[in-house]
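step=encode ok
step=design start
structure_in=
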């Protein structure tokens, strides 16, 4: 069976999102609707009609990325460990993309010049990801899969454990976990450590995953 063709509106949205991601890595917060329209091959009026504003366009791009990262949480699988490992792997894969590292470096350098844009981007991205993970953790706690504690703080703890120092390694151009096998080992180690910390009395914690000697 041939796959269903992608509707033209969805194809245009994909082109626009790709243009935004590319331009953010090149221009940072100085990105304009004119530049996006030129890169995506559409009119500025089309952008305003579809997204409403530059902020709405940015939110659409961020939301698409968050939906990909949090897809394993939304599926609601029966195995909390595998669900969190899948989440961790998706998050690490995204952070391992060179364009993401370049974008974050540029946006961090410009944040003091564009404080409102920076705060909005942080709220729509980092805060929202933390909240979606916290919602999943809270549900797992209610269902007796995790020990009852503060879900929002637990989500922040797990996110920091997942990322570790690898993003900083990339920012400073030192060797990082570029291979999927290395990221998987780290994801399993971080998730297992988290689950041991929040294990219930009824559910034994998993044995820690082995960590490879090199990255």
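sequence_out=
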């Amino acid at each position: 069976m041939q796959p269903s063709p992608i509707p033209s509106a969805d194809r245009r949205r994909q082109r626009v999102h790709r243009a935004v991601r590319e331009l953010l890595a090149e221009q940072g917060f100085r990105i304009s609707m004119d530049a996006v329209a030129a890169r995506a091959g559409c009119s500025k009026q089309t952008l305003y009609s579809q997204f409403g504003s530059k902020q709405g366009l940015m939110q659409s791009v961020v939301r698409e990325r968050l939906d990909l990262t949090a897809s394993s949480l939304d599926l609601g699988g029966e195995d909390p460990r595998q669900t969190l490992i899948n989440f961790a792997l998706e998050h690490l894969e995204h952070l391992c993309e060179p364009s993401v590292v370049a974008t974050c470096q540029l946006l961090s350098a410009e944040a003091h010049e564009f404080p409102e844009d920076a705060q909005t981007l942080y709220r729509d991205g980092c805060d929202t990801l933390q909240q979606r993970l916290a919602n999943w953790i809270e549900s797992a706690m209610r269902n007796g899969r995790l020990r009852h504690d503060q879900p929002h703080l637990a989500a922040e703890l797990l996110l920091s454990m997942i990322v570790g120092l690898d993003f900083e390694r990339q920012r400073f151009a030192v060797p990082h976990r570029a291979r999927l096998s290395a990221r998987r080992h780290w994801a399993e180690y971080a998730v297992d450590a988290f689950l041991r910390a929040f294990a219930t009395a009824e559910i034994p914690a998993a044995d820690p995953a082995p960590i490879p000697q090199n990255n």
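step=design ok
step=annotate ok -> The mean pLDDT is 90.
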